[in-house]
Fold this sequence. Notes:
Elements: E1 4-5, H1 11-20, H2 25-37, H3 50-59, E2 60-61, E3 66-72, E4 79-84, E5 90-98, E6 101-105, E7 109-111, H4 120-123, E8 126-129, H5 132-146, E9 150-155, H6 165-176, E10 188-192, H7 196-205, E11 210-214, H8 220-226, H9 229-232, H10 235-249, E12 253-259, H11 267-277, E13 282-288, H12 302-314, E14 319-321, H13 335-345
Parallel strand pairs: 1-2, 6-9, 9-10, 10-11, 11-12, 12-13, 13-14
Antiparallel strand pairs: 3-4, 4-5, 5-6, 7-8
Helix pairs in contact: 5-6, 7-10, 11-12
The chain binds S-adenosyl-L-homocysteine (SAH) and iron/sulfur cluster.
Residues 112, 114-116, 119, 121-122, 159-160, 193, 214, 333 line the site of iron/sulfur cluster (SF4).
Amino acid sequence: MQKQDIRAMTEPQLRAHLDELGLPGYRFKQIVKWLNAGVSDFSQMTDLPLALRQQLSERFFIPGVRIARKWESKLDETVKYLFELQDGETVESVLMSYKHGWSQCLSTQVGCKMGCTFCATGMGGFIRNLTAAEMIAQIEAAEKDRGIRVSSVVLMGMGEPLDNYDEVLRFLHMLKEDGGVHIGMRHVSLSTCGLVDQIYRLMDEKLQLTLSVSLHAPNDQIRSPMMPVNRKWPVDTLLEACRRYAETTGRRISYEYAMVNGVNDSDACAYELAGKLKGTLCHVNLIPLNPVDGSGKRASCLKRIQSFQNILTKSGITATVRRTLGADINASCGQLRRKADREKSNG
Ligand code: SAH
Ligand code: SF4
């Protein structure tokens, strides 16, 4: 008999299967609780009798992820993974070591619809959403591989998390469950390119996570050519949503700003940005652009980045330059997957 995907089943279907096995109703509740906690294997359902765990694993499987490729940094403890999903699609994830513990960057979609011109994922187009279970499975696979516990997660891998809102929310709730990976909301960052309607929706959930907004430019003239999403939700509309979000949740917004040589890195841009963020609960993260093949864009030089940072700081805006981990296995989101695809097509 072919094993069935237990997560793909509706509740009545699962109930019917368990009835067939002659199991009492409370077993259904126990199993659903474990599935909601994101376990990847029936052996982790520790309050079920061993024989039952065995029986379940003969009939069903819990879809997970497999490490298709792995790059380990020689400079620090960073590991980049290419995970293969049940249907053969692949996504990237990066595990980083910080003083406070292990942090993992997760993917939320295979590809992305948003088409940002500096992003390798954006260039590859969109394939499909990940399920909440596939997001949890990325954490479990890394934990198992390294024998560690991940203590914080950032949704900054492939995909736009707010374009996969329902599964991302399910994932956030699964994170907290006892018996699962058990990561509190204060240790989660969610990064968005600025889907304003979804930012308001998220605001109403009043979660204690950190919202990161990929701003990358202080005005529409510069932002629209970089990020097509800006044509729908321009800078000022986005910043208004962010201001409301920060006020309502009491959590400061973290703005991502990729420094692109000659595009968005002038002193004038820094002054304009400072003017727009002044008086709001915020932090700016300056990131030297990670050059993507074929884009023709380069990172700003360090002197330029420092000048930009100084202007922000002097205007009362806290700004940091992101430390690059795993510089020797350097590849921003989407680049590893593209590389693996190219290698595959080259035989
Ligand atoms: N879709 C979400 C989250 C995934 S992208 C978002 O856009 O926010 C994660 C971060 O990487 C974003 O801040 C994105 O703008 C940034 N990024 C993408 N390509 C990059 C590159 N080539 N160099 C530097 N940052 C990049
Ligand atoms: Fe998608 Fe984010 Fe890349 Fe833009 S930067 S294409 S939103 S993954």
